Amino acid sequence: METSLSVIATIMVGVLIWWPLQNLVLAVFAWRSPQRPRSVRRTPDPVPFWIVIPALNEERVIANTVRNALATGTRYTPVRVVVVDDASDDATPRILAGIRDPRLHVLRRELPMARQGKGEGLNTAYRYILEIARREGTIEQTIVGIVDGDGRCSEGMLDEIAELMAEKSVGAVQCRVRIHNRHKTLALLQDLEFGAIADSAQSLRDLVGSVGLGGNGQFTRLSVLARFHPGPWSACLVEDLELGLRLHLAGIRVRYTKSAWVTQQGLTDVKRLLRQRTRWAQGNLQCFRHLRRLTTSRFVSGVGLTDFLIYLLSPWLTVPMSLLLVGLVAASAVALATGSTLGGLVATVDTLPTSAAMLVGLAMLPSLLWGLVYWVRLRDENIFRCLFAGLLYPGFLALGIIATWRALFRLLSGRNGWAKTERLAEDGQAAPPMPAPVSVPLPLPRPAAPPATVDPSVTQPIPSEVLAAAERTRPVPHPLAEAEPTQRLERV
Known about the structure:
Strand content: 5-15%
Structural class: alpha/beta
Oligomer: single chain
Radius of gyration: 25 Å
């Protein structure tokens, strides 16, 4: 019995030491900027970009997102946008029909084929883009980016991506992710997580060759996606992370940039956040199946493999470690009531306050450190809010533990379906329900003919409140714009 307790005590001490040390080392990389290619020059030829926006009932955000994506194009990085409308039954189709730009393409998926997961929607867009690029002869030059329905791209982002991809060994780039409604406390914690902690982790991974792809702000060469034809994205609940793993296994280099970023909405409701994190945790559990191939891959370095092991094993270790922690708390309560140290597992009554203070300190110091890093590196929030976020971050991590437990039960019960998280209105508040959308008939494409255009009779003006905050589209014509209709709409 004493031996078992000693082993448990040793494990807990190791975890308590590892936690602050890991965060201290990781925080150093907040100051590292991923290296740009030095010996590679960009050609003067334009680099064609496609930005894919998966959309399912995005009436509250889609207009701003599309206009922002269209505005990212420049003379050297011409952009076209394809929105995959996954059988939206709100005002999304009507809003899209009102955006008149020759670079906007809308793909409408219909039930029962629609709503089969984000991966299937992205695969539909990929095959559409591939066919156009094949006709134009631009498969090797084309880059495909993913921006979520609530995403906003930073200025000059495509130039940054094109510069990194001037190095032919680079097949994909992941941009930094921020939260744009961080005036809310819960959203602020998510911005701390993405803008500081995940950013530092990705900067380290850029060095060791294990950068992960996210669902927002990922850019991949079309020729790389074509290696996984006909479906680069899987049905995994974290199809973005899994695509990144598949790229690493294929020996394709993935880079990270912190000087180009995408902002997105943070969830401001604990219930919705817990549902989102449960989905992410379940997807991470699903990705465990790639572990064996990673350990035997000749393309994965030893340090990179260590990183893969940590984030693929962590969800599986969360459950036993949380049980161990609960057991330790229960043992401390028993020891306090009986005066026993349980074989040295817990502190004596006399030293319990000091031990408790040390444990709280070890748990809180890393979070306060990240609050300080967040303030120093980003400088867009005052120091008091940053430190406040740091103080609350351990509670935010506790939500992650609960989400992992839920994810494990879902996985073991074979439940893989998911309801989409509702968007917020652009001011950060939940918008009131909109009236029932007008039925918009969609033209069927004619066989062996160019895609059908939008029927002008169904184009309706966009409500002024929807476009009030929309950014104006810069007049950056695509080289093929004159040969294209005002907007393409396909029914798939």
